[in-house]
Amino acid sequence: MLLPMLFTLFTAPPATIAPADSFRYRIVSISNQEVDASALGQPSQTVTITTTALITLRLTDSAGGQVAHITVDSAGMDGGEAMAMLGPEMTEVPAGVFFHFFVKDGKPASDMTPSASSVPVLSLAGAIAALFTVPKPTAKVGDSWTDTTVVDTALAAGSSKVTTISKWKVSSMEAGGRVLDADQTGLMEVETPMGKMSGTTSGTQHLVTRSRGPLVRMNSDTITDMVMAMGTMQMTIKGTTKISINPIP
User: Which residues contact 82 (CB under 8 A, 6 or more apart)?
Assistant: First the structure.
């Protein structure tokens, strides 16, 4: 039994990543935040939030680019007691929620605001933007370059803007796509009814692209150092976030 299996493995044509118009992914985001609320007379608190989601991405050709429609098939969040205090309207995924935006030259080119908001939905926005990481068309193994991305999200309950500078390098090739690694730094601004947050981000990203279309998979590690202004008082929020995106067959 073993020999026929080995023969099949060695004689089969190499796998390739074929272009497609519909893609499914599993996204896992694990965020750890340490909140120093001593300015408010409160003790420091550590919060861990794990968000898991299954999404379907469909791309439709349009004049000048493509239209991306992403449905959140299922999602859940575990944030312990701290998140439970927010209530289900903030911690659950609204039924039928989706992202709909225009893609030009392989990158989001219009507002990526979801159709409805909650904490787990907003945590998916950064991962969804990463799906459209596009290397230079002529990039080959060993090449490196720097680019800047800006992700704006506006909601009734607030807004966010994340600017990221990525120093990319093509590490290798895999099944017709490129394997990319990046060192990243950035700025983050968040407006909420409770106050305004701003600060810096830094981290790394590892991903595999397709010959055409959104990426195959991704892993990232990000460190955030934020200050939240609440009237005349401030809180510092330091944290780490790990995101993994993997295809669903």
Answer: 45, 47
